[in-house]
Design goal:
Layout: E1 4-8, H1 13-25, E2 31-35, H2 36-39, H3 47-52, E3 55-57, E4 62-64, H4 66-75, H5 80-86, H6 92-104, H7 106-109
Parallel strand pairs: 1-2
Antiparallel strand pairs: 1-3, 3-4
Helix pairs in contact: 4-5
Length: 132
């Protein structure tokens, strides 16, 4: 039985490469990978939320973005040493912006592998003054 479920965008080249990298680290097969396209109707997150950042479902809570990557590294024997560094106090002040920078620019990083806008991050809708 898998301990954690990682939800990723199966149409995104960077997301698929991330999954493959983690599969190499996951010697004990503790992580179950599912595309958001497979589970969109079964989870309480919107398609936009799932396309914006990696989601990891644990038995107790959901971890997203940098925290999801850090948690997944902790689950893998080969990633554990790096995970220790990512749990240093206040490292998330660096880790979160770096994750966002990479995620927001994934279409540029892997432009040759991103067809039809599959790597694009959905833009959040801005609200007007009257909306709350």
């Amino acid at each position: 039985m898998k301990r954690v479920i990682a939800l990723y965008d199966g149409q995104c080249a960077l997301c698929r490469k991330t999954k493959e990298a983690f599969r190499q680290l996951d010697l004990f097969h503790r992580i179950q990978w599912s595309t958001l396209q497979e589970v969109a109707d079964d989870v309480s997150y919107t398609n936009e939320e799932l396309r914006t950042e990696l989601h990891v479902l644990t038995r107790k809570k959901t971890k997203k973005g940098f925290y999801a990557v850090r948690y997944l590294l902790r689950q893998t024997p080969l990633g554990f040493p790096l995970a220790i560094l990512l749990y240093v106090p206040f490292i998330d002040r660096i880790g979160n912006p770096v994750y966002r920078l990479i995620a927001n620019n994934r279409h540029k990083l892997l432009a040759s592998q991103c067809k039809d806008g599959a790597c694009a991050i959905p833009q959040k809708q801005t609200s007007t003054k009257n909306e709350r």
